[in-house]
Amino acid sequence: MSSDMIAPGADDDTTRAGTTTLSHGMTAAGAAAKASVAGVAAVPGVSKPDPILTVDHVIRRFGGMTAVDVGHLEVQRGIITALIGPNGAGKTTFFNLITGFDKPSSAPRLIGGPKAGEAAKSTFNGRDVGNTGATKVAKMGMVRTFQLTKALSKLTVIENMRLGAKDQPGENLFVSVLKPLWVKRELEITAKAEELLARFKLLDKKDDMAGSLSGGQKKLLEMARALMSDPVMIMLDEPMAGVNPALTQSLLGHIQSLRDEGMTVLFVEHDMNMVRHISDWVVVMAEGKVVAEGPASTVMNDPAVIDAYLGAHHNTDLGDDSLLTDEVAEELAAEVQNEALTEGETKA
Ligand SMILES: Nc1ncnc2c1ncn2[C@@H]1O[C@H](COP(=O)(O)OP(=O)(O)OP(=O)(O)O)[C@@H](O)[C@H]1O
Ligand SMILES: [Mg+2]
Predict the structure, then answer these.
(1) 66 C-alpha to center of ligand 1: Å?
(2) Beta carbon of 2 within 6 Å of any ligand 1 atom
(3) How far apart are CA 18 and CA 158, in angstroms?
(4) Alpha-helical regions (H) of the chain
(5) Same domain, 117 and 246
(6) Would 79 disulfide with which of 33, 55, 65, 125, CB 3.0-4.6 Å?
(7) 185 and 277 share one domain
């Protein structure tokens, strides 16, 4: 894949309303995201200026094997963070734990649990989510997609989308007996579903069975469905796996535009080119632990990270010559600051 195909801002979808594209092709929001973590040290477990997700002592054992053992991790709000690591590193298990699909072995228990101060704890948007189930976590604004897509193949595309909406009329007895309210909400859900399907170029497939979509289209459907609930944070488990190269460019644009609209994105991906080009921050997991984190330019040139990867990914492209230099990133940050100042002046 040529690097210009996945250059930030290359897709015209990234320049949708509300985002400004700077002269370097990076959006203002993208530059601001990078600037927000510019001063953060590249050290595993480092504190971030504005974490949306904070995780402590999250351990998951399967029998005698420890799949996840994360002492402390913070995810900065409003940026794209990539979670990388070799196969079996514990990335998906970690996603399951923080989205309430699985429970840490280190969860606090009334009897026989971990010692005080060593029990698993996670907070999302300032609220404790350590003991919260998946549905509730999603309602709080953290949604995820799956490595193996979970589109329901015997339902149509639009039916799949409706399942992603929160506050569905049928869920609430009080609303379901008030038909006018019910109808209004139904119409809103359909309108929103169609808008998202159009955005992901799936609208002409809305009445097709989800099972008839290609692998890449299923990934897009899953992402679109996750957006039905207006999440504040979206977690994508290998969004590019199995996606046709023709679709990858627009998928990258979509992920960047989510960030540009203010969402926090955490994604797992093996495609190192994608990771380099769209991540504002990279977290590396190996054997369940966070072994490195920092900007892509720092982390992905770290010999320890390359070693951890080469064990499992001899074919992974770790070379890149089109990476944004720190100088360019600084220039962009200055440009954003100037823009903010000018805006302030016009308002004053
Ligand atoms: N339900 C389970 N029961 C037993 N072992 C499990 C279970 N789920 C995961 N594991 C093991 O935990 C480890 C971490 O798996 P996980 O799927 O989280 O890795 P991953 O980093 O997502 O890998 P990949 O990149 O291949 O998707 C692996 O050794 C895996 O075999
Ligand atoms: Mg996985």
Answers:
(1) 10
(2) no
(3) 27
(4) 28-36, 91-98, 134-139, 157-163, 173-176, 179-199, 215-227, 245-260, 272-278, 296-299, 303-310, 326-347
(5) yes
(6) 33
(7) no
Both 48 and 171 in one domain: the answer is no
199 Cβ below 6 A of ligand 1: no
Cα 316 to ligand 2 centroid, rounded to whole Å: 16
pLDDT, tens digit only, all 348 positions of the chain? 333 333 333 333 334 444 565 555 577 888 888 889 999 999 999 999 999 999 999 999 999 999 999 999 999 999 999 999 999 999 999 999 999 999 999 888 777 778 878 888 999 999 998 888 888 888 899 999 888 777 677 899 999 999 888 766 555 555 556 666 677 888 889 999 999 999 988 999 999 999 999 888 888 899 999 999 899 999 999 988 877 777 788 888 889 999 999 999 999 998 888 898 899 999 999 999 999 999 998 998 888 788 777 554 434 444 433 333 455 445 555 655 565 555 555 444
Q: Do 260 and 331 have their domain in common?
A: yes
Is residue 229 domain-resident? no
Residue 208: give the domain boundaries: 152-212
Locate the ligand 1 atom nearest the alpha carbon of residue 94 and give its number.
18
Beta-carbon neighbours within 5 Å of ion ligand 2? 91-92, 147
CA angle 102, 108, 109 (to 5 degrees): 105
Closest CA to 222 of 210, 209, 205: 210
Domain count, the chain: 2
Residue 275 CA, ligand 1 centroid: distance in Å? 21
pTM of the model: 0.80
Residue 220 lies in a domain: no
Query: Are residues 39 and 141 located together in one domain of the fold?
Result: yes
Q: In whole angstroms, what is the distance from residue 88 CA to residue 160 CA?
A: 30
